[in-house]
Amino acid sequence: MTTKTVLVSGASVAGPSAAYWLHQYGYSVTVVEAAPQLRPGGQAVDFRGEQMKLIDAMGLTEDLRKYETGMGDQQLLDPAGRPVATIPSKFISGELEVFRGDLARILYDRTKDYTEYVFGDRVTSLTETADGVEVTFRHGAPRRFDLVVGADGVHSGVRTAAFGAESRFRTDLGYHVAGFTAPNHLGLDHSGLIYSEPGRSAMIYSSRDAETVNVGLFFRGDPRGYGRPDLQRQQEILADAYAGAGWELPRLLGAVPAAPDLYFDSIGQIKLAKWSKGRVVLLGDAAWCAGPGGSGTGLAMMGAQILAGELAAASGDHVRAFANYEQRLRKPAHVGYKNGSGSGGFLAPATEKNVRSRNRMYRMLAGSVFGKIFDYMGYRAANAVQYREYPGRIAS
Questions:
Q1: Pairing state of beta strands 28-33 and 5-9?
Q2: How far apart are CA 361 and CA 76, in angstroms?
Q3: Of 163-172, 204-213, 222-231, 274-283, which range is least confident?
């Protein structure tokens, strides 16, 4: 039997996860990534519940433990910068938390010996034939693959090539997010702070590197979004959004121009009526981006295992496999949508009254009487799909 070939677009987390699981079932995988190399840093991502079973099944637990953030509890601050509540670490950081860049590198190292990685290139067109997909690239020569997996994030090029423009499937939620590394002038040590003013917030936390903190910004902005602005325009938007801000925000924002890892995007959700078209299938944020709180990383990795397992269970019949893959993940994706849809207003409450109300809720939930609610909220999305082994795994 001829080994089937699969092109996976995207080398962050979903793509290498797909490469790992497809290899387990005998597929030959090529991963193409637009960036010239793996992207370092990034925000922290966490795993809990059923997702930990997946991590164990992939043999990643020991490696990831070496790079976990070790985050402790976080302090919620009032507008004057005074602590008003303690948020348990397990609610923010789950059972295991690492930086996205570390996770991506570990997945790459695990798969690079049997996966062809092509950096600095991207898919430009897809043409399905009777027995495969003809793919053209921005730089490389055209190639043919049996199947194509779009695991290239919310701005997926594969989705655009196969399904149409992003605007057809994206709903902006009116909020925006930015992340960057800044000097640790607050002296945080494996701890974090959350500060909010009407329409804008900051989450600041320190982990393994005592000299720096990771800063996450959430703010209300143009409900139509800002498109995909260049670096200078991103800095201008942030300066405008946080003009006149109090507490330590001016100093933190002052670190943006020198930040080596600024990330900026609008918060939105991606919803498609169907995640596959012929021999092309979408995975992770490319298919079901839910926004913050939607357990996106863990669900994308779960999706990679389910996609590969269903292909194996269907003996390579991609039509049946893609349908079963989608059937297993639709409900979990909807749980993520529900969590993510209110994330902007929760992270960056619109008014002073909303800020006070959100803070009161945190204080209540942080109390021992309501601690189980924190657990439920943290595990709801993570446990929306149960880990299940598929037969026929031929590689270790």
A1: parallel
A2: 11
A3: 222-231
pLDDT digits (tens, 9 = 90+) for 164-189: 999 999 988 889 999 999 999 999 99
Running DSSP on this structure, what letter comes out for residue 314? T
Beta bridge partners of 33: 119
Q: Which residue is associated with the tokens 């996860």?
A: 17
Query: DSSP code of 212?
Result: E
Rounded Cα distance, 349 and 345, in Å: 5
Strand, coil or helix: what is 25? coil
Residue 231's CB is within 10 A of a number of other CB atoms, namely 11
Measured distance CA(112)–CA(16) in Å, rounded:
9
d(CA 392, CA 65): 29
pLDDT at position 228 is: 84
Whose CA is closest to 330, among 277, 377, 275? 275
Q: How many CB atoms lie within 10 A of CB 251?
A: 12
pLDDT at 376: 65
Residue 270, beta-bridge partner list: 170
Record the tokens describing residue 13, joined without a space: 């987390």
Residue 1 has pLDDT above 50, yes or no: no
pLDDT over 80 at 371, yes or no: no
Q: Using CA atoms, how far apart are residues 324 and 312, in angstroms rounded to an integer?
A: 12
**201 torsion bin: left (phi>0), alpha (psi -120 to 50), beta (else):** beta
Residues whose CB falls within 8 Å of the CB of residue 175, separated by 6 or more in sequence, listed in order: 218, 219, 220, 221, 266, 267, 343, 344, 345, 347, 348
**Would you say residue 336 has pLDDT above 70?**
yes
